[in-house]
Amino acid sequence: MAAAIVLPVVGTAGITAKNVAGVFTDLPAAPPENPLPQRTVLLDRHGKPFAQFYSQNRKIVSLDAVAPIMRKAIVAIEDSRFYEHAGLDVKGTLRALVTNTQAGGVRQGGSSLTQQLVKNILVENAETDAERDQARAPNLKRKITELRYALAMEDKYTKAELLERYLNIAYFGAGAFGVEAAAQRFFSVPASRLSLPQAAALAGAVRTPYGTDPSLGAGHRERLKQRRDLVLSRMAETGAVTRAEADAARRTPLGIRLKPEPGGCAGSAYPYFCVYIQREMLGNPLFGRTREEREARLAKGGIILRTTLDPAAQRAAERAISARVDPRDTEVAAEAMIEPGTGRIRALATSKKYGRNPGNSNLGPRTTFNLAADVAHGGGMGFQAGSTFKVFTLAAALRKGWRFNRGFVTPGVFVPAKGFADCAGRPVNAPNAKIFNSDGRRHPGAYSLSSGTWKSVNIFFMALERRIGLCPVVKTARVLGIARADGTPLREVPTFTLGINEMDPLTVAGAFAAFAARGRYCRPVAITEMTDRNGVRVPVRPVCRQAIDPKVADAVNYVLTGVFQRGTMSGQGIGRPAAGKTGTNNGYTSAWFAGYTPDLAAAVSVGDIRGSYRHPLRNVKIGDRFYGRVEGAALPGPIWVASMSAALKGVPASAFQRPDMSRFGGGHTPVLTPPRTAKGPHADRPGSPFRKKPRFRPWQNILNR
């Protein structure tokens, strides 16, 4: 039958009459079907979508998930004899052949649904523009090839299977591929709930998806309505619906309710978390052997990624930052929150909106830098972490046997001229450097391990680092996940303990979370489970290790709780046990606060996006407040307090494990010898050169608050 039908025109396709029968009896195998591109969807910890990636907006569904009226509509308008033929609509093809023969080329379509399915498959399988053009070429040779494949498809699949494949591959317009995406895009309903007028509109859109795209304006919607009414008439003619039903549907408005389907991170409610996931997936071999394979999986894979994002914590961080830092400020704040013991990232927030500024300017209310993360995850170069790094020297000292009250007298100025070597054993002394405390005073002072931490004394920690060794401090930091934001090796120099290395908040938060988890460090993780297009679930388990002795971690926690009670964060708290450390760099180039409870850890950084060295945080207006100088307790600290209080609302308070006082309690700190004073009847008289000097108070000698 097929041979007889095409006999008048096969000559134009380069096929002789002698070979016509063989063309349609010696059929090829059905064309290979590559997996159709589908959306990759990101879910928060509660299973709610917050972002998606796709090259084609499509969600494959079974035929049972498509309303029966939609199946009837597409068959009525595209191939009313679909259930009667074996891939070739004889009447339709004869009609098209007469028209095309008279015109000398293809002018009218007579393709069955199966032929249309084949055409779509060949277009999807094409890897180059030339192959795609060939699959769409308006010539008889392509039509004959298409028909041969259609007959093979009919032999391979049932009618229901063919219809299901067609409804999932067809393009409906407005960026929607497949009936499920189209139903959501056009009418904001799933395909299973399409009404008669809606189904007729979608069926009408398939023939001219660009000319009837409802997102393009009133003219396109009017053409879509005309196509809908045509489908309704055809459905009545074929008996798919009654004439009365068709007439009633024709009288209804088109009823377009466009549902936005933004792709990528710019359209996400939580763009910075989205960027982190995107970069993690593209850079992690877990999601594909090569970057090209990972890119294809992200854009076309149809996978579902359940993430660690906690919307409550995310909103808490965003609100705490926005209440104090304006997006238009050149000073930027960023915060990362992470769960101790699992490494699950709960929030990533910055003071700027995500996106590009007009003219792609680096300055403005927007940025594409994920400032809460490192360069590998879309972040910038980071800011020097300042005195938050003193915690690693504290931990190393406790590990070496230091006790809470053990200390020494510090000089008024410290010169790292000797005693410093990196982990390769090379001397890294800096005889020309002079270290002062943050207040600039050059008084000597006596500090213990505890009081030196609470008051964040620079000179004390420089001397302590020399006593216990620079390398043990560096190794402690490394084992707790510390790495520079730009990915280069840590700078192993005497001022390591003062936070000379540029960091990102997430890395710092992850290290501090390990103390909250009693020394168990977990690599920050944002994905907990991946479900592929076939429904196979692959859990992503935390990567953790016992980085430091749990009892050493308990001792660190004990000292750092004092920062809130007797140290640089006195008067600020969250109403539950918490520990932390402020960080203010020399010259006020940046400011930090990193802290934690047993349930949640967070780190906040503040610096100037134009460059921290050229634009220090002195005499600046940030938000609606003027700062003579920005210290860790002045801005990052309050952001941390506000965000943690809100993020932990409703979460029962947990207590830290008490330290082993037999191991860490006690200790001795030499008493600072008071200065010699003159005696005499005029010694205390104002203006007298012999006036008794006021007693020195160690807490006045504060470094890097």
Describe the structure.
GO terms for molecular function: penicillin binding; peptidoglycan glycosyltransferase activity; serine-type D-Ala-D-Ala carboxypeptidase activity. Keywords: Carboxypeptidase, Cell shape, Cell wall biogenesis/degradation, Glycosyltransferase, Hydrolase, Multifunctional enzyme, Peptidoglycan synthesis, Protease, Transferase. This is Carboxypeptidase. With 705 residues, this protein is of the alpha+beta class. The strands form 8 sheets. A 5-stranded mixed beta sheet has the order 2-1-5-15-16. Strands 7-6-20-19-18 form a 5-stranded antiparallel beta sheet, sandwiched between helices. The protein has a two-stranded antiparallel sheet with strand order 3-4. β19 and β20 form a beta hairpin. The C terminus is likely disordered.
